[in-house]
Amino acid sequence: MHPRFRNGLGETRFAAAMLQTLPALTNGGLELNEADINANLSQLNNASEEEIYNARCTDLYDPLTLHSMRQSATHGTFMLDLAAGADPLANDDAAMRAVPLLMVQLPPEAFDDTSGARMQTHILQGLCWMIHRTFATNLSDELVLNISLGITAGAKNGKSFLSQLIKREIERVAQHYGGRKTLEIVFAYGNAYDEGLIAVHPWLLRRRAPFRLHCNPMITQLALLNCA
Fold this sequence. Notes:
This protein has seven helices and five strands; from the N terminus they run E-E-H-H-H-H-E-H-H-E-H-E. By secondary structure, it is an alpha/beta fold. The strands form two sheets. A three-stranded mixed beta sheet has the order 2-1-3. Strands 4-5 form a two-stranded parallel sheet.
């Protein structure tokens, strides 16, 4: 319901959203269409985003479950704004506002298992749902999917089971549609599991020397590792 995901009329840019629940293998979850989301937007005059989200999630999650849907802005909000956010009125953002959006909210339980084993199933389920929702309904001929895995969901070097299946889905789309429709996956920078760092500087032992590290101005905390 964020303003940067709405058009000039105040209506949502989301064509659909999937709020996943357990168990993933039975396609558990709640699918919202454009009308459902616009109905939630119409409630903003009388309720806050958090209140609307909580009401929506009452039947989805256990009352004691910690989940990001209790907040109006999360990591996913920030990532989507970077990828497809648009000013609802600015002329320069008119082309982006015309791009339909899809969203999959993984269940909180997927993050509890820090090995990433449970998350893989939900990500693949969400990917298949997005492919079907985009191409089978002729929503668009191109699907650009942004995934930010953080520190979970296993290795991020193309060797994991999840990575191999994502690659397979990209190939299946290309083969099935013969290039008429395309699927592209964008992973967040810094998800390299094996390296573990996004900045490396060789250091000579027993010698003091200054060095300069330029960081994104939005970074508020900096962790220096392997500095011994």
